[in-house]
């Protein structure tokens, strides 16, 4: 899985209002406190991590992609704030301390290949979470993966290039495959474009499976909602939001 080109387009194609919604979701569980120790797992380009740091929290951003972290580092400098950024694999998360809040948003857990990898991620989070801490994450719902994504197409273009996103039903149960094509203007001649391609696979599971894996990882108090915690889960909810405590 490569994010080399995707990292540079990620913030352009993301609905910017979604980041505000994720932040509000986190704030529901910080109770207005400042100076909390937060880990943003799969932090990507650091947009959420930087905003949490600007709110006065001590933030550690973890991501598997060097390219994503490079964008996050530049954002940190531009926003004149400070946070810790580190390369890390959520499937093998090392003990890093007792965090008050650990987040994992933008369906990042859906990139894990199977239940065993999801369980490993949950266990790593549990080991890094304080006894009174909360683990917040979202995943694609079954409806999103099986009904919305197959046949989905999206096109974005600007003066620097163009981006085509096509989604197809995956080979595994409750999975989807994304075919990403980029046309990027060359530095030597802005009228010439180079083509790049990336392939992303995502998978989700029934709510009962997530609950079972969370329980195996040591979480006994799990709340599941939709719409960033503002609605109950429905058959056509596109994302599920989890708030988990030990």
Automatic annotation (TrEMBL):
InterPro entries in alphabetical order: Methyltransf_25 (IPR041698), SAM-dependent_MTases_sf (IPR029063)
Keyword Methyltransferase: yes
GO molecular function, one term: methyltransferase activity
UniProt-listed GO biological process terms: methylation
Regions crossing the membrane: none
Any single Pfam family the record assigns to this protein: Methyltransf_25
Keywords tagged on the record: Methyltransferase, Transferase
Domain Methyltransferase: from-to ranges: 39-129
Protein name: S-adenosyl-l-methionine-dependent methyltransferase
UniProt organism field: Trichococcus palustris
């Amino acid at each position: 899985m490569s994010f080399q080109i995707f990292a540079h387009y990620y913030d352009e194609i993301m609905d910017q209002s979604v980041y505000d919604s994720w932040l509000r979701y986190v704030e529901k569980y910080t109770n207005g406190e400042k100076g909390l120790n937060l880990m943003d797992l799969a932090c990507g380009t650091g947009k959420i991590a930087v905003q949490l740091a600007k709110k006065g929290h001590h933030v550690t951003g973890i991501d598997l992609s060097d390219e994503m972290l490079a964008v996050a580092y530049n954002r940190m400098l531009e926003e004149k704030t400070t946070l810790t950024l580190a390369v890390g694999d959520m499937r093998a998360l090392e003990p890093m301390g007792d965090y008050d809040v650990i987040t994992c948003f933008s369906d990042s857990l859906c990139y894990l290949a199977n239940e065993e990898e999801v369980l490993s991620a949950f266990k790593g989070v549990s080991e890094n979470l304080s006894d009174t801490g909360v683990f917040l994450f979202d995943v694609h719902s079954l409806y999103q993966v099986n009904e919305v994504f197959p046949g989905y197409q999206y096109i974005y273009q600007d003066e620097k290039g163009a981006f085509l996103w096509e989604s197809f039903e995956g080979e595994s149960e409750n999975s989807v495959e994304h075919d990403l094509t980029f046309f990027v203007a060359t530095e030597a001649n802005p009228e010439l474009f180079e083509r790049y391609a990336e392939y992303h696979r995502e998978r989700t599971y029934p709510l009962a499976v997530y609950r079972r894996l969370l329980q195996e990882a040591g979480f006994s108090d799990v709340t599941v909602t939709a719409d960033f915690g503002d609605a109950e889960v429905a058959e056509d909810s596109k994302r599920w939001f989890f708030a988990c405590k030990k």
